[in-house]
């Protein structure tokens, strides 16, 4: 396969993983476990099998540790982390150079939908909690749901939401066509998280 056939759909740098975001990510990885305060690289590529080459490049060119590499129907995803932000930048630069790409060629994020659901019903809270990997959604709390494309940019949104608002991250899902973030708390804080995540996506876009 020629390098020109490879598309980098998402390339995310996270400067400092926040406590909840790091905990949820740590529950998802099957490799090295990240912790609060680490920097992170999240990459999403097409075709999906190219993620194996990308991870190999990242590990050989820097001091990052691998969290996971996954291939789903269309795309491949990887997470790597380090206490050093320079490690993250070096890994990303090496991947871009190997594929002959620049950051300008990376697909930009788009907000597909956003909504705040007020005063969640107890039964709906239980349904959501059954599949979440983060904090429990309690009856009466408000729930903010963000949907972005490409999916990988949702990890940046989740970390930024935690930085800027007193909320709970119920779950985030970064695989597939669309990424989704679920945030719970008091309505005023949930709305502050919504503003923070939209602003974060706009900064990248």
Q: pLDDT under 50 segments (min length 5)?
A: none
How many structural domains in the coordinates?
2
- The CATH class of the largest domain is identified as Alpha Beta
Alpha carbon gyration radius: 17 Å
Give the ordered list of helices and strands: EHEHEEHEHEHEEH
How would you portray this structure in words?
The chain has 205 residues and is an alpha+beta fold. It folds into two domains: 103 residues, Alpha-Beta Plaits (2-Layer Sandwich); 95 residues, BMC (bacterial microcompartment) domain (Alpha-Beta Plaits), CATH 3.30.70.1710. The chain is 36% helix and 29% strand. It has six helices and eight strands. A four-stranded antiparallel sheet has the order 1-2-4-3, sandwiched between helices. Strand 7 and strand 8 form a beta hairpin. Helix 1 runs antiparallel to helix 5, helix 2 packs across helix 3 and helix 5 packs across helix 6. The mean pLDDT is 94.
Condensed summary:
By secondary structure, the chain is of the alpha+beta class. The chain contains six helices and eight strands. The chain folds into two domains: 3-105, 2-Layer Sandwich (Alpha-Beta Plaits), CATH 3.30.70.1710; 110-204, Alpha-Beta Plaits (2-Layer Sandwich), CATH 3.30.70.
